[in-house]
Amino acid sequence: MIMFIIAAVVMFSGVTGSLNVTESLEADTADMLAHPNSVPEFTEEETEILGQILDVEAEGDVMATGELNPNHYQAQRAAKVVQHYLNTRNGSPFRLFRLSRVHSGNLEDLVDSGRKYQLEITVKESISNTTEKLSASVLFPREERQGSAQVQASCDELLKVNITAQEEAFYQQYKNSQNLVSAQYLPDSHGRIDDDMRPFWHLSIVASSFVMLKESNENTLYNMAQVANVTQLATENDQLKFDGHILLHDMVSQEIIHWKLQFTWSPPEGVKVLQMEQLPHCHHCEKPQNSN
Amino acid sequence: MHSCVGLSCVLLLTVIGAATVERAEYDYFKYHPMSEITGWMAQIQKENPDLVSIMDYGKTYEKRTISLLKIGVNTGEKKKAIWMDCGIHAREWIAPAFCQYFVRQILDAYKKDPKMQEMMKNMDFYVTPVLNMDGYIFSWANDSTRLWRKNRSPGPAGCDCYGTDLNRNFDANWGTIGVSFNCCDQTYCGKDAMSEPEAQAVTFFVGTRKEDFLCFLTIHSYGQLLLLPYGHPNFTAPNYDELMKVGLAAADAIKKVHGMHYTVGTSPDVLYPNSGSSRDWSRMQGIPYTFTFELRDNGTYGFELPEDQIKPACEEAYSGALEIITYAHNKTFNGAVATAAATLWTVLLTVCVTSTNLM
């Protein structure tokens, strides 16, 4: 009697096991046979799930406001703008801010001014490797003529890291230098940066942040890809002065955008950008339109 | 005094002897130009003739031969398969580095890990270290070409620029979203779906074997993401929930290695919408577990990831990939056995309890 039951169970399980595999293959076949431009035919269960997702998508398209998923692109792009802002305010050869995590995000559509993101993020100061959690807001104006994104954020804790001695030493080293520094391709193709060139790489990132802040909107995600060239000019008004040719990477379009900058730095004044100019990326291309 | 000199001589001779006897080991933690990668593939095949064969499966625009390493135990039977490609985008150098590391790891694991031995018996691994060879070689030409992304086919008549974005060229909602029709742009999707020989090679090789493939993993950088199909916001994969679950498990595995956070989700959710990707195409063929890996970093070095980060980046990505591969394997090969065993034990217990009550 027991042997009969065991035998029946074994036979039944064998059939059950193979059924699981077949089910998923059937769904895949339906998916595959559907014309690429039509909504694929799904099982009932899958249609339900798809329906729920489409409902959410539709809601998202109409409203796109309220509580945001911190891992999704809206909050991430806005948070990156906060990074650029913090670098313009407090970046230096020895202080650089990086977005570390986005914890929460909320989006409000303000009829007259634009779209306002409220964020809780963690920022890392990458040289001291210290982090700070902070609240920030980013307002993207509705129209381009209203200017670039407006950010409110501050990282008081990270500013307490003492870099005065390093800044002063670096400043004195290059202020009255007879040999003006020049460097190409930071980092190089293999990701290398000479130790004594690192502060110039940091300075270039900070200068780039002015451009990235100005150029950012809800459809961009900027990082500085590489410094093609940074050349020191004669010190002016006690400011170290530089010409830079930098390459920005916009993740959304995947484009590499060339910018020429002239910028200055000193410990009391921080980084200031005197001139910025976008360059066409190929000599026979037309000058790119400023449409964002 | 004499014994010290003698000892030094002995040591010196031993070192020289050792140096001449040992081959130079391949450095997996440096970036290698295409010629060295090709040489490495031949070497791997030579060192593991029972497990590894090289298959040529297409030509690039500039007529280079696209090859993969097929790795697995030769059982003489038709086997299930795992697909991995690296270097579809030229500037993402960490990706080919990872494919090479992955091959080394699975061959190493095969020597001592019973699980890998089981997986290599049941499945073959098809690994393409550099798919976009023309683009990769171009990115090595000089400092100013380092950030090239596309392949090297010329643009259509009337457009001076080169290159099609191979990851927008596959026949999967081709040309619908997240692409440019300007041949100078980085996401130019080509004149037609599958217009590019590199995309054709993958389509033909995988397409003629699609029932065999359990996983299709395509490796990119940067961004620290695990992307699920589809790139088009209006389409959801039939196994979306499962892909999310497996992806999150992979991200967990990645985090355990060096603490790095990888975000999991569809492209439209976590990055941007797109169409014509190899991942979407392979999912549409019915291959169940298809993921895009975007490796380190998050924008600090971007495409020029320093060589001292190759090792940790590869170690964590390997953990993630293995999680997905093991899941796919176990679902296919242990599923039936596990269900049978569980059911059998349940019935036996019921019978025993019933018999005890009756007695």
UniProtKB/TrEMBL annotation, chain A:
Keywords: Protease inhibitor, Repeat, Signal. Gene3D superfamilies: 3.10.450.10. GO terms for molecular function: metalloendopeptidase inhibitor activity. InterPro entries: CYSTATIN_LXN (IPR049897), Cystatin_sf (IPR046350), Latexin (IPR009684). It holds the Pfam family LXN. Residues 64-163, 182-287 form the Cystatin LXN-type domain. One of its GO terms (cellular component) is extracellular space. Residues 1-17 form the signal peptide. Belongs to the protease inhibitor I47 (latexin) family. This is Latexin isoform X1.
Automatic annotation (TrEMBL), chain B:
Pfam families: Peptidase_M14. It comes from the Eukaryota. Residues 1-18 form the signal peptide. Keywords: Carboxypeptidase, Hydrolase, Metal-binding, Metalloprotease, Protease, Signal, Zinc. Its cofactor is Zn(2+). The active site is at E294 (proton donor/acceptor). GO terms for biological process: proteolysis. PANTHER family: CARBOXYPEPTIDASE O, PROTEASE FAMILY M14 CARBOXYPEPTIDASE A,B. Belongs to the peptidase M14 family. This is Carboxypeptidase O-like isoform X2. The lineage of its organism: Eukaryota, Metazoa, Chordata, Craniata, Vertebrata.
